[in-house]
Amino acid sequence: MPHSITLRVSGSRACFSSPEFKTERASYGVITPSAARGIYEAVYWRPRLRWVIDQIHVLKPIRFQSLTRNEIGDRISATSVRHAMRDGDLQRLSRNAADMRQRRAATILVDVDYLISAHLSLRYDARSGERLDEPLSIFRRRAQRGQYFRSPYLGTREFPADVALWEGPVPEHQLPADQRDRDLGQMLLDIDYTDNHAARFFHAILRDGVISVPPFVAAVRS
Fold first, then answer.
1. Residues of 174-190 as b/e, b for ≥16 C-beta within 10 angstroms?
2. How far is Cα 83 from Cα 119, in angstroms, rounded to an integer?
3. Can you give the pTM of this predicted structure?
4. Cβ distance 7 to 164 under 8 Å?
5. Helices 133-145 and 33-43 meet at what angle, rounded to 10?
6. Closest alpha carbon to 196 in 170, 221, 168, 163
7. What does the alpha-carbon distance between residue 208 and residue 143 come to, in Å, rounded to a whole number?
8. Are strands 25-26 and 64-72 parallel, antiparallel or unpaired?
9. 10 Å Cβ neighbour count for 63?
10. Residue 63 above 50 pLDDT?
11. CB 27 within 8 A of CB 14
């Protein structure tokens, strides 16, 4: 596919939370296209361009682990921060943050390794005549050098991702026989920011270790 780039993404832990689980986090069995797009954007992002995920190759066995984590149940409002800065009383901010800590169970993935293929496309608001050659060249250079706009992560910031540009043949996966072909059910495809941040889903099927991702179509803006 033209304008296509492949990344190898791996890490010791990952959590791609399903939206159905609000309190206790439970990860999908593989990385979601939305999370994969976030990794591409961590390497290089520019307005009016969009990364479209085409395929996800699962290279290592799908393994889950249960653990308990400390999380913040709520965020301090911007108004509270402004008032604390105005009054010179920053102590109450740290005290409030401590009060909001919660211990929650999570089901996460361990030892993940993916080969992700994506292509770059123009958004609906792109300027006439805008080309993709330059941003693709910049992306390749940044990926080769390990340069990022922000640190890439695997679903949550506490699980960093190792990211490398991949230009060789697809490596053999290590999936056991019962994981090579699997119906993964409904999976988050992406968030439609043109439609009040609506979640879009697709029926994910793993065939010989590969998920083919359908095109994401945003709602038509009026």
1. ebeeebeebeeeebbbb
2. 46
3. 0.82
4. yes
5. 90
6. 221
7. 28
8. unpaired
9. 12
10. yes
11. yes
